[in-house]
Amino acid sequence: MESKSSRYEYIAILGALAYVIIMLGVIMLFPVLILPFYPEEKEVMQSFVLPGVLSIFLGYLIKQFTAGYKLDNLKQNSGSVIVLLIWFVSILIGSIPFLLTGEYTFTQAIFETTSGFTTTGFSITDVENASHLILLYRSTLHLFGGVGLILILSSVLSNVYGMQLFSAEGHTDRLTPSLLNSARTILYIYLGFIISGTTLYIIFGMDPFDAVNHAISAVATGGFSTKNDSIGYWHSVPIDIVTIVLMILGATNFMASLSLMKGKFRRFFNHAETKVTLFLLATVTPIITVMFLVENICPSVLSAIDNAVFQAVSLITTTGLSTVNDFLPRASFAIVPIIILMLVGGHSGSTAGGIKAYRVALAAKSLKYDIREQIEPKRIIHAREITRYDKKSKITQSEQSGNYTYIIIYFLIGLVGTFALTLCGNSFSDSFIEFFSALGTVGMSIGIITPDMSNAEMWIIIVGMIIARLEVYIIILGISRLIIDLKESIRKRRTK
Is residue 47 within 8 Å of residue 447, measured between CB atoms? Predict the structure, then answer.
């Protein structure tokens, strides 16, 4: 009976994947909408139309096959299994248009797709010679991957099943009493930011195509650009400012963003994550400014300040857009503060990567309380609290220890990835920066990421990007659930 139950569950999971496969078909067809504006690129159209239509048809067939299998409650950690499968299927199918163009190998196609969906922004595409359809497709990957494939699916699956997936991907904050309405509210806010950003970009001189792509890239904290010089191509302070605002909004927890839009400024600025972000920006930006002047990267103090603010925001929001070419290799004495920004990342529940500002704030608070307890007399007891949205929340022992464990695991994975890249012939320092840039979905390269990099290097970075987007625990729990189910299935067969 248990084996049948497990089989039933996996068929129901296949039913959830059907929705994702249909959604991927829509994603692949989306770039074709701009073909009337670029008719000379009609040959590229086949790379999107064929896999898009087939994906929708395949999803429909799977949905019909699994129509009688419904699942209202998931077994322990099964939500993580579904999240894993959805992301792996999305990356595999999403890579097909790149492959069909004939300009990417299988590994390169997987690399570009993973970078797009995970909003890392590493790229091996020659963007100024690529077709507009390919460029828009890359941005579309950011669009769907930034807010979360599961969140989009949850807004479609308006049932308990969809909401369990919503929670499994790591969305914990409710913007409304209903989780379904929370998912849809997040989507509305997300799209509102992108539309507003596109409009402002056009006003300040970008053409509509570039404006759409960069608005998506900034809000999704992705980093894909349509220019080799990224935002620096325009040499425009207003465009820099718009991008900075969009990156901050994308990297801010959606509940905190909602507070800001409602004028609840105290609630926003008293939030622990906001304090961490502002503190780090205030500390590191002056260091980067001085570095730009000392290294003669910027011609004046005002230029150095503008570029330093932009790069600091781009780093801590894990976006990866830039106003200065080859920024990391020339960072000199500012490299350590820069790495700290990359490691911390944005807010939990945002489109940004990194360890997340809330975990850093929690670790700092916990360390403060631990030290205080060692110094002060035992009879003095302090409540362990952290501020979230202007409200004091109690820090439990399990939350504190779990947070320490997560950070340790994060660094261990980073060091393993660093060691793997050194085995490919890279220096330790370059490998460290490159892999942690992938692990934080930052997407700024020290120089390892090139079209000529080896397949081994690409797969190492791919693994880092996937771990970064899904976060460590989801992968560990999902793989553990798969192993348990596989062992159970084998045991059942042997006992028959």
Answer: no
